[in-house]
TrEMBL record:
Keywords: Receptor. Residues 1-121 form the TIR domain. The keyword Glycoprotein does not apply. Pfam families: TIR_2. Transmembrane segments: none annotated. This is Toll/interleukin-1 receptor domain-containing protein.
Amino acid sequence: MAKAFISYSHADEKIKEKLHTHLAILRREGKIDAWQDQEILVGANLNQTISFALSSSELFIAIVSPDYLNSNYCYEKEFQQALELQTAGKIIVVPIIAEHCDWLNSPFREIKAVPNDGETN
């Protein structure tokens, strides 16, 4: 079972929920376990919990939007840690381009994105 970390801006909550719905079959078949920040327990240290979940994942799924690129936490903490893990061969970064944004002027440009290389409708 692949362990996935879903990184998203809270402004994109509806998009994240739709992704969670799309992953339902893979979860049912035991092919993926997708972690999201709602799993953080009350009283837990946010930074430590998120960092541990990310470092113990095999996939980093980023829901990329203008809000994601604007988020210091998503972009500068989670994504930067994922890039380090990817360079070390410990994780695969999967950018999902949710809406038009300036992702091609970021390190995401070097990673194959979906849908169709980031072309959104």
